[in-house]
Amino acid sequence: MALQALSTILDAHGGVDRWHEISQIDVEMSAHGFLFSTKHVPRQNHAHLSIDTRSPRTVIHDYPAAGLSGILQGAGRVEVCDANGGIAEAREPARTEFDPRPWKHWDALNFAYFSGYAMWNYLTLPFLLLAPGVEVQQVSERRATVLDVRFPSDIPTHSELQRLYFDAAGRLYRHDYTAEVVGGWARAIHLCSNYREFGGLQFPTTRRVYPRGPFGRPLSAPTLVAIDIHDLDLS
């Protein structure tokens, strides 16, 4: 992928060299929103997640209950494990077990899969663009750098085709996608702000997801998902 803008984008988030020095991101975060309400998922208050930077793996600690962990394993498997690593529940392929009807509730495995791959995507971008099989095309550089991205099937993500917007400094501020496991109608605009440095890398600590309305503009309501990053630790 030979995009002149990519070097600026990666440097703006801390640089490839620093990224390659880490293998795990531990994040303390809170999340809520309209999606949580409609799917009967409890609000996540100061949840602790461990994100693998080398492969699709996320551990949601103390979920769905204290002493348990919801674990994304690769592109299509999700598990609930006990404190000793024993598997209490598992689902593979996890992605096929979603009902696109808006009123259908999610179980613990549904949410662990969705949250696991989504946070893995969010916290590894833009470095995820360097992964094998990811295709990137620059479509605009007026006032912002806009990239169209096509993800391969071995990367669990919202949709095959997505669009990323970067400001003049190279920081990601908008991410457009269709959350296909929610439904083909779930066209979203994900806004990123309040960047902070953690261990030499830059991460947006405020994330808000809104429906994508006419002319590609975010609707002011409802807030589909609100994510607040409280702390990050890199190792």
Largest sheet: 13 strands, antiparallel
Which quaternary structure do these chains form? Answer: single chain
What structural class is derived from the secondary structure elements?
Answer: alpha+beta
Distance between the termini: 28 Å
**CATH fold title:** outer membrane lipoprotein receptor (LolB), chain A
Number of domains: 1
How is this structure best described in words?
- With 235 residues, this protein is α+β, with helices and mostly antiparallel strands.
- The chain has one domain (4-230): outer membrane lipoprotein receptor (LolB), chain A (Clam), CATH 2.50.20.
- Helix content is 15%, strand content 41%.
- The chain contains 4 helices and 13 strands.
- A 13-stranded antiparallel beta sheet has the order 6-5-4-3-2-1-13-12-11-10-9-8-7.
- Strand 2 (44-52) and strand 3 (57-61) form a beta hairpin.
- The longest helix is centred in the middle third of the chain and has 17 residues, at 108-124.
- The radius of gyration is 17 Å and the shape is globular.
- The mean pLDDT is 96.
Which labels suit this protein?
235 residues; alpha+beta; outer membrane lipoprotein receptor (LolB), chain A; 13-stranded antiparallel β-sheet; 13 strands; 15% helix; 41% strand
